[in-house]
Specification:
It is a single chain. With about 140 residues, the protein is of the alpha/beta class. It has one domain: Rossmann fold (3-Layer(aba) Sandwich), CATH 3.40.50.1010. It is built from eight helices and five strands. A five-stranded parallel β-sheet has the order 3-2-1-4-5. The radius of gyration is 14 Å and the shape is globular. It starts with a strand and ends with a helix.
């Protein structure tokens, strides 16, 4: 994979694919055109599938399957990311899988809106960037090519 690797937390994927958030649209376009690549694991995909079924989103089974398939098409699955001992621990254990994946896959960035993840920016900076969706869009815009 020659293109830069990103890890997207589940709320960012919702913004990209379900809510069609205007801020996230350029990031989705970068994924669709192969300018960047998103990596996932079985655990992050399972969380995506589980969240799609939340009643508050009002998605029927066919809509859930379509959104799940769309994310699969935009991502590359890697083997389960093992916890890296020297990584900081996230105060929200549900978000640790994204930090572990970013480190294990040598991703350039983790895109999140979660405060617990964003608090770890400086501590994760030697390995990868932690960015909000808007920061990720600006980062992608700055890539050559």
């Amino acid at each position: 994979m020659a293109e830069p690797l990103l890890v997207l937390d589940t709320n960012v994927v919702l913004d990209l694919l379900h809510f069609d958030d205007a801020v996230a649209q350029p990031l989705r376009h970068a994924l669709e055109t192969g300018r960047v690549c998103c990596v996932v694991t079985e655990a992050t995909q399972a969380e995506w599938r589980r969240v799609l079924a939340y009643p508050e989103f009002g998605l029927d089974v066919a809509q859930q399957a379509a959104l799940f398939a769309r994310y699969q098409a935009l991502s590359v699955r890697v083997n389960a990311a093992d916890a890296v001992a020297e990584l900081p621990r996230c105060s929200d254990p549900d978000d640790q899988k994204f930090i572990d994946l970013a480190a294990a896959s040598a991703a350039q960035g983790l895109v999140s809106k979660d405060r617990a993840v964003l608090k770890l920016r400086r501590r994760c900076a030697p390995r990868f960037r932690i960015m909000t969706p808007l920061e990720a869009v600006r980062w992608v815009d700055g890539l050559s090519g």
